[in-house]
Each structure stands twice: as structure tokens, then as C-alpha cells.
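hey m, so remember when u said the C-alpha cells were messed up on ur end? i reran from scratch. heres the input so u can diff it against urs
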Amino acid sequence: MVNVTDTHSSNQPGAAPHITGRAAFAHTPGSSLMVLAVFFVAVMMISTITGTKGVQIGPFNLDGAFYLFPLAYVLGDVISEVYGFKVMRRVVWAGFFALLVMSLCMWITIELPAADFYEHQEAFRTVAGVVPRILAASLAGYLAGELLNSWVLVKIKEHTGERSLWARLLGSTLVGEAADTLIFCSIAAGAIGITGWGDFWNYVLVGYVWKTLIEVVVMPITYLVVRWLKKREPTYQQALAKIEASEQ
């Protein structure tokens, strides 16, 4: 194992590269991080709303966010792989507070007196009123799952370096999605009408397998995005060069 000193410095242009063990990370993130972070938070907020609807496709019990939410883990993997755990942790907390603000706005809007011409107050309350419970499930699962996902990916990378990206992506997803799915389903199941244990475990297992399969299916695209970002971020290349020089 090559012993490369972990270098941390101010987030200013020209700062020293960020290195931990064999793992290189971009230390002065460019505009690409902002785009990824915005999409990540948007996916979380949209999933919180669409997740209020219970969906049944054949024998499978799902929620309305099943087709979108897995993208959050793909984005989290990309951010963690290129920018590291500390950056991803800030993105996760930004999403956390965005979801809190959204929940507060939903509650205020529900409680505001409806206009005489507005005929859908109860329908709005029925749909939007479920959001706080879904939000609690989302926040609890989200914090545990996304932070575990990022931490596991980075820890694996410290040992593998640039090799075995597939193992980092898959291994971190297996851990993060397990925590997220179990926590979210335990809290949110009742909010979308799931009450029996059979339906509950159907909901948990189908959700977990589905989200993990999505990670595998989109892995070739994740590889391309990660490779492109690593070439685009100058401080990532500096960190990588420093590691390579220390191994010679």
C-alpha cells in the first residue's frame, strides 16, 4: 500500500490536490458539481411528491417514485467518486434542508384559507397532506442511505485507487440502498396504504432489487460521466498525478 499523505487546503484556485490513500478527488470543484448537485436535490424533491402514490405493476407493490428515485444514487455515486465524501455530505445536507422547506411550504399552503372559486381543497389536502409522513421517511432513509453510500464508495476507493470502479459503484449501492429502502418503507408504507406484512416485504424487497438493478443497468453511462468529469476537473488530474509520482 502506497502511503500518500492526506492533503487538505482552502477551497481556492491553485489549492493542493485532495488525496486520501490511493484515492484522488477534485479539491476545487468546477461548475459541473453545481449541475450535479441541483439535479440531485431536484430528484429528491420530485420523488418525495411522486412517492405519495402507491403503484401496483403486476404482483409488485411500488411507490410513484420508483422510476426516478434510483437516479439519486447514481448522481451520489458520481459526486462521491469525483469530489469525495466531504463534498457529497454538503450536497446531502443541502437536499435535506430543501426538503424541509418544501414540507413547510406544503403545510402553509394547505392551511391557507381556500378561495370561494377553488373547489379542490380537500383533494389538495389528501395528496399534499401525506407529504410530511413521506418526507419523514425520505429524510430518514435519505440521510442514512446517501451518507452510507458515499462513505462506502470512498473507503473502497482508498484501497483500490482508480481500479475497480464497478466494485465501488455496486458495493456502495448495495449498502446504501439497503439502509434507505428499509428505513423509508418502514415509515412510508402506511402512508400509501400498505398495512399487511406480506405487502410490506413485497414493497421492501422489490424496491431494493429494483434500485440495485437500475445501478447495474446505467453503470456504463456512469462510467462515461465519471471519466469525463475526471478529465474536466484540473485538481483531480493534479491529485492523480501526485499519486502516480509517489508510486514510481
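this time it looks ok to me. The two ends are 13 Å apart (CA to CA). if urs says something different then somethings off w ur setup not the seq
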